[in-house]
Amino acid sequence: MRRRCTPRQNSNSCTSFTSNEIKRSERRLETAAGDLRRAAGCMRTGRS
């Protein structure tokens, strides 16, 4: 899986993140992973 970097991550160190930003990023990653699992399940069962 390719990890996208935001401009802020590129210019600043990750330690400058606030805990809220980290939580938001983790939630976004979890949601993306859930979407991928759902998409894979649809492909396996042949449903669109």
From TrEMBL:
Region (Disordered), start-end ranges: 1-48
Basic and acidic residues composition bias: residue spans: 21-38
Superkingdom of the organism of origin: Eukaryota
Biased composition (Polar residues): 7-20
Name this polypeptide is given: Uncharacterized protein
Source species of the chain: Cystoisospora suis
